[in-house]
Amino acid sequence: MAAFAAGVYHPLWKAKWETQWEGAMIELRDKETGRMIGTITEDQLRFLVGELEEESSEDTDYYINKLTLDMLAEHGADQHLLELLRAAMGSREEMEVKYSRV
Questions:
Q1: Residues 14-70: pLDDT tens digits?
Q2: DSSP codes joined into one string, the chain
Q3: CA 68 to chain centre
Q4: CA proximity to 85, closest of 62, 102, 56
């Protein structure tokens, strides 16, 4: 069973996640242009993963729009994360972002 299936969560997955990627730098990129948006922390990524829809447990990209940014803010998103996403979106109504560990 996938870790993200039907909202199922197990505390050991968090430990595995943290151990596997501890110390890795996470880059956010504009999926359409490939332009780097900035770097985020594990906590910021964990927040995004928890808040946004994934098509699979291996999914690394997310669709966002202005309503998504408002929802993230209401749910307690880190200010730095919101600033990165808002700056990347600019005047667009929507975009896709992807992350990678480097």
A1: 544 454 546 678 999 999 999 999 999 999 999 999 999 878 878 899 999 999 999
A2: --TTGGG---HHHHHHHHHHHTT--EEEEETTT--EEEEE-HHHHHHHHHHS--SSTT--EEEEEHHHHHHHHHTT--HHHHHHHHHHHTT-SEEEEEEEE-
A3: 12
A4: 62
